[in-house]
Amino acid sequence: MKIVCDDKIPFLRGVFEPYAEVVYLPGAAIGAADVRDADAIVTRTRTRCGRALLEGSSVRAIASATIGYDHIDTAYCESRGIAWSNAPGCNSGSVAQWVRSVLETLARSHGFTPSDKTLGIVGVGHVGTKVAALARELGMTVLLCDPPRAAAEGPQGFVSLEEIIDRADIITLHVPLDASTKYMFDVKRIATLRPSQILINSSRGEVVDGTALKEALKTGRLMAAALDVWENEPQIDPELAALVEISTPHIAGYSLDGKANGTSAAVRFLARQLGIPDLLDFSVILPPATDASYDVTRDSDALKSDLTAFEHLRETYPVRREK
Predict the structure, then answer these.
(1) Low-confidence ranges of the chain (pLDDT < 50)
(2) Exactly one of 46, 250, 320, 321 is catalytic; which is it?
(3) Residues 74 and 50 sit within 8 Å (Cβ to Cβ)
């Protein structure tokens, strides 16, 4: 067997080597020639797994060590019988940690107390649920918006996106990127936001129209914004990055704990697909954290000082623990 892996996925080297030929490459550089004779791919978001990469290959399984999976053409994979997986919830604690630091930082810079504010959470999956819990710990009023969950579970406990915009002081986005969420916050919706509101996005860049957000910040129609995700990553809009109060390079989920969970999920999935029973219960065991403090301004300052370092900052991200 042959497995092609993103070389920045931690804790992976040596795991598959007893069972397969393993090739490690930069995620963005993995091409069709690299996977033509491969049985499986272990990836992050920088490898676009679709027809251009996979046509004519022997790939039968793709494991992404990430929550998001918009880099995988799932329809194409399913039409070709290629099994795929993501790692839902793997870094939810890490993203919640990032959101908490964002809230505390903005509270200091704008002179408000979180317990006096209403937080609107759009997308209440693994991440949104943890964000709701931390917001309640901070004494905030919490509004939940998740149309798919409301349809499946009933509307009780959920509100519409329009009500979030109308009532929330701070809006935080935790949705997957798909046809229903792409530019969810478009020109029209951003125009309905108020100068007293804050927008936070750590889901996917294309959930928010960056040009419209930029204009809202330039004209004072929005108090502040915090972005971890951007359109056209890693070539992000420098004017928008300067206007956004907290700008980080898609690292909200980059805690060591989250990375370990993502790698473990990817290994277990491929073990099932490739018939490697010894790895079915694989997990990365981390030592107890001695210091789980996190200050988001460190990451924001690093990006703002050099936007061209976007990928370098991700690839060399320092150890951050959740607890």
Answers:
(1) none
(2) 250
(3) no
Exactly one of 36, 80, 215, 233 is catalytic; which is it? Answer: 233
Measure the CA–CA gap between 259 and 265, rounded to whole angstroms. Answer: 10
**What would the pLDDT profile of 7-60 be if each residue is shown by its tens digit?**
999 999 999 999 999 999 999 999 999 999 999 999 999 999 999 999 999 999
Catalytic member of 100, 204, 314, 321: 204
Report residue 3: phi and psi, to 5°.
-125, 130
Q: How far apart are CA 168 and CA 170, in angstroms?
A: 5
User: Rounded CA gap, 72 and 84, in Å?
Assistant: 8
Q: Are 210 and 184 a contacting pair, CB within 8 Å? A: no
Q: Is 239 a catalytic residue?
A: no
| pTM check: above 0.70 | yes
- Please give the distance of CA 59 from its chain centroid, rounded to a whole number: 25
Q: Distance (Å, rounded) from C-alpha 111 to C-alpha 250?
A: 27
In the residue annotation, 60 being an active-site residue is answered as no
